[in-house]
């Protein structure tokens, strides 16, 4: 799986072997933003156009566009998991927030 980024939005890129095209979809949104191209340059241009068109449509409708992530996460976890995480963070010499950000970053890389 490959990713592309533009204006703060990230898209997943896959190969459609049936149609022999590259297909992309913007990640992290409820709205569906998809695009495709016959080669990487076409795909990149289609991605940029899709994001620009999405932002323009939101503006015309008077709606705020969805943003991929604000950087704030609210988690509800069992108290014993919270306690274990807090101890792990303290043992690492970090705040719980710093420790959790590190763990999530490592886990999201695969």
Automatic annotation (TrEMBL):
Source taxon at top rank: Bacteria
**Xref: SUPFAM superfamilies:** Ribbon-helix-helix, TTHA1013/TTHA0281-like
Q: Tell me what this protein is called.
A: Type II toxin-antitoxin system HicB family antitoxin
Query: What lineage does UniProt assign to this protein's organism?
Result: Bacteria, Pseudomonadati, Pseudomonadota, Acidithiobacillia, Acidithiobacillales
> Which Pfam families does the entry link to?
HicB
């Amino acid at each position: 799986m490959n990713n592309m980024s533009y204006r703060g939005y990230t898209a997943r890129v896959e190969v459609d072997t049936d149609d022999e095209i590259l297909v992309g979809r913007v990640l992290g949104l409820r709205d569906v933003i998809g695009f495709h191209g016959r080669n990487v340059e076409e795909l990149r241009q289609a991605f940029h156009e899709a994001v620009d068109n999405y932002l323009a449509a939101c503006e015309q409708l008077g709606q705020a566009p969805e943003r991929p992530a604000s950087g704030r996460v609210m988690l509800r976890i069992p108290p014993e998991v919270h306690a274990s995480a807090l101890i792990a963070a303290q043992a690492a010499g970090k705040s719980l927030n710093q420790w959790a950000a590190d763990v999530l970053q490592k886990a999201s890389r695969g």
